[in-house]
Design a protein that fits this description.
With 64 residues, the chain is mostly helical. The chain has one domain. Helix content is 95%, strand content 0%. The protein contains one helix and no strands. The chain has one helix spanning 2-62. The longest helix is centred in the middle third of the chain and has 61 residues, at 2-62. It is rod-shaped, with a radius of gyration of 28 Å.
Length: 64
C-alpha cells in the first residue's frame, strides 16, 4: 500500500511538472505571437516609407 501511495505521488508530481511546462510553452507562444504582430506592423510601416521614398525619388527626377 505504501509503495502504491509513493508511486501515485510520483505520478502526480510528473503531471504537475508537465502542466507547468505546458503553461510555460503557452506563455511563450503568446509572447511570440505578440512579437510577430509587432514585426508585421513595423514591416507595413517600412514598406510604406519605401514606397513614399520611391515616389519622391521619381518626382525629383522629373525636375532637373
Amino acid at each position: 500500500m505504501e509503495v502504491m501511495q509513493t508511486e501515485t505521488q510520483q505520478l502526480k508530481n510528473i503531471i504537475d511538472s508537465k502542466e507547468a511546462e505546458i503553461t510555460t510553452y503557452q506563455s511563450t507562444i503568446e509572447t511570440l505571437k505578440k512579437e510577430i504582430k509587432e514585426v508585421k506592423e513595423d514591416n507595413k510601416k517600412l514598406a510604406k516609407q519605401i514606397s513614399d521614398l520611391k515616389k519622391e525619388a521619381q518626382d525629383m527626377l522629373l525636375y532637373p
